[in-house]
Design a protein that fits this description.
alpha/beta; Aspartate Aminotransferase, domain 1; Aspartate Aminotransferase, domain 2; 7-stranded mixed beta sheet; 4-stranded mixed beta sheet; 15 strands; about 20% strand
Length: about 375
Amino acid sequence: MLPHRLQSALSDLDRLGLRRCRRVLDGVQGVRVTLDGREYLSFSSNDYLGLAGHPDIAMAARAAVAEFGVGAGAAHLLTGHHRLHHELESELAGLVGLPAALLFSSGYMANLGVVQALLDRHGEVFEDRLNHASLVDAALLSRAKLSRYPHLDLAALERQLANSAARTKLIATDTVFSMDGDQACVAELLVLAERYDAWLYLDDAHGFGVLESLAPSPSPLPPRLIYMATLGKAVGVSGAFVAGSGELIEWLVNKARTYVYTTAQPPLLAAAVRASLKLQAAEPWRRRHLIDLVGRLRAGMADLPWALFDSATPIQPLLVGDAQAALALAEGLRQRGILIPAIRPPTVPAGTARLRISLSASHSFEDVETLLASLRALAAS
């Protein structure tokens, strides 16, 4: 797009209620935040276990900085692969029950790297229609054929697999869908992957640390399974990892371009992640409280005019429909000191704009009641 057309295009975004803007956070991430100088009760973050601002994690990061410095200084295949990275990879692999794991700088980079390392123009990627954008981009950049099936429609997926003559097949899906909050059926997907000799790639960005996404799966887990999770959501730090067979991880070390051609993350982040994992193991109440909060919110929404999506996860989308109406509802809550993002096209389909309520273990039942009271007031106004 030429520069002189940008202003007109931005005006079109304004007219449609689709222009995004950034707010500036000051202070620690949490359920109470200061944005652009004003304090809010926030239901806007992916900090599901309330660990992003935990002092024990900050202390682990400070100790690592004091001993190892800040930057990694090089890519993993040069001199950037620190002992802290190596130890964390082993811990993460054991945690999810797979032989090996590999750290990436983000979930987006992990998805791009894995799919491009495994497929070329002779392959085919089968994706749920509501997959995260990074999985769609990964398939497109791999040059493989991209076939998308209706959301959670495994019968349609099986028809696509049966009709495919691709040399390499890969089924890719979110485990928890970030805008709807529902979940893929991992066990049934594994059956299809086995039946049609396909890889199964699970993007568990919103499930890791909160749900046991691999629990329904057979044990030991099959070598065709590839598991990706991020470390900036429930873990509260940054980065991502991919876990799978030893041969898969060795191939990615050599062929995943987003791993090979980028500087390693600072070792201090690996230390922070390990501190977070220790806290999660020691404090199971965080997950239990989160489940209780979901139940309290859903029960309290029964008499309101907006419908919650069918979700048992901390992601509780509130369907509004029109993009401008979703913005207006979000603004009404903001004026009452409550922050919830309005999710609009193209992130979600036209006509399904919503408020994406994200719960955290740091929320109290009183916080949920405050939100419900504000929604009731707005519904009555």
